[in-house]
Amino acid sequence: MTKAGSKGGNLRDKLDGHELDLSLSDLNEVPVKELAALPKATILDLSCNKLTALPSDFCGLTHLVKLDLSKNKLRQLPADFGRLVNLQHLDLLNNRLVTLPVSFAQLKSLKWLDLKDNPLDPVLAKVAGDCLDEKQCKQCANKVLQHMKAVQVDQERERQRRLEIDREAEKKWEAKQRAKEAQERELRKREKAEEKERRRKEYDALKAAKREQEKKPKKEANQAPKSKSGSRPRKPAPRKHTRSWAVLRLLLLLLLLCVAGGLVACRVTELQQQPLCTSVNTIYDSALRGLRSHDILRWVLQTDSQQ
């Protein structure tokens, strides 16, 4: 066995055997990393140092059979501490450990364990016991291994449960995404159909308008011959001299009124004895006789119908 006598010197020069005693060497985490250079070391004593943690490289010493880490300031062991599968004797007395890594359950060769004077979790402390003698330390190793195996099983079960929950959540999320995508596809399909229907209606409307435009000239062409054929009589064109005739008739009416007034004056008043009235009365009597014979009336009616 090689034992370190002081802090000085090269640590690699001290690690020249399979049994290494580095107790009371005032080591910290940095020089402990150099232990990885001796992967075939079987016995290692690191007790009574100021170690607060072990580097992950330390777990590469897979040939260790006996390890003494007592009277340090370790707060936890490396997560892959279970790689030390050949470890049979482990002394963790008087540290600051509360729990052990789950990989501790892989130390199937462990036969002796001391966890006294650590602020252990109450459940773990009850399982470990007092370890006051060889027998109790062996029982401690056995019970702690069984406890850590149960913890490992529980954690694995919990991991599987969470994994299953995550899978279910992922499936629900995927189902929700599929439903959302299907809804979006249906919406796009409906919008596309509505757009197609709108365009079709616009096309039909334009086509109908075009047909109406094409029919209008035909209707006008068909209506023109009807008016020529006489199926519907056309109103006679207004006479060119209608206004002249109206003026003439008005003058004639005025003249007749004057004549009638003079006639009444000549026949009723004292003026009938005057020569002018005598002539007027004679003309009146002649006209009256002519009207009675219908010749003048017939002439007037015939003239009006010809006009």
Explain the overall architecture.
The protein is mainly alpha-helical and 307 residues long. Helices cover 55% and strands 6% of the residues. It is built from 7 helices and 6 strands, in the order βαβαββββααααα. A 6-stranded parallel sheet has the order 1-2-3-4-5-6. β2 (19-21), α2 (29-32) and β3 form a beta-alpha-beta unit. It starts with a strand and ends with a helix. Mean pLDDT is 80; it is low at 1-16. It is a single-pass type II membrane protein. InterPro entries: Leu-rich_rpt, Leu-rich_rpt_typical-subtyp, LRR_dom_sf, LRR_domain-containing. Residues 175-241 are annotated as: Disordered.
Low-confidence stretches: 1-16
Structural class: mainly alpha
Strand content: 5-15%
Task: Tell me the CATH architecture of one domain.
Answer: Alpha-Beta Horseshoe
What characteristic shape results from the CA principal axes? rod-shaped
CATH topology of one domain: Leucine-rich repeat, LRR (right-handed beta-alpha superhelix)
* Mean of residue pLDDT values: 80
Number of helices: 7
CATH class of one domain: Alpha Beta
Largest sheet: 6 strands, parallel
| Oligomerization state | single chain
How far apart are the first and last residues' alpha carbons, in Å? 161 Å
